[in-house]
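ok here's rRNA biogenesis protein RRP36:
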Amino acid sequence: MPRERSCAAAAAGSPRGARGSGEDAGDLRKDTSNIPFEELLELQDQLGIKTYKQLAAGNSSKKQGSRSRVQNACVADKHRPLEMSAKVRVPFLRQVVPISKKVARDPRFDDLSGEYNPEVFDKTYEFLNDIRAKEKELVKRQLKKHRSGPEHEKLQQLLQRMEQQEMAQQERKRQQELRLALKQEQRARAQQGHRPYFLKRSEQRQLVLAEKFKELKRSKKLESFLSRKRRRNAGKDRRHLPLSKE
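and the structure:
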């Protein structure tokens, strides 16, 4: 054993030994995975632990650097074709070209269609009033033909719904005219130098209700309207009364 150590030391101290260690270091830099474990231990004894670790670290960093260069070369061109692995089975329905998803757009609730202006809307679709009137007359004629049965009930419900829509449209038109009159009045006051006064929502509702009462009184339907309202309010009050104990 002492003789072998002295031989190893002499070999390490001689130029030949240094050349051998350089060759071993070069072999270590190339690849250390194919060297047996016993030879690695001998190299570690010859070169020293510190030098051996530095060489091993340099070899691993060199491998990592080469691998990173290969990865960067693969990722560099983003327009290159997609490489599919041969080990993974290609699905039957594979999306080759990305397709943008179609988004449904409702013009009634989309800001791209502009803001809703009831005055402009009624003026634009004013021709629908004539079509509704013709449809109403047609339903009335059909109702005269069918005096009874399920067809009569359907036509009766349809006529009632059309009349309710017509009444709601007239009420909306009356409110628009009232608001327009208030705007014109405020504009005239501002031109005269007065400070404009904007009505609250409660005051606007009171004005609309007053106009409605005037219209009912003019058409002699005020009493029937008030009687229906009294019955409705009485039913609401009766609902809130406590139940009588027997």
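+1. The chain has nine helices and no strands.
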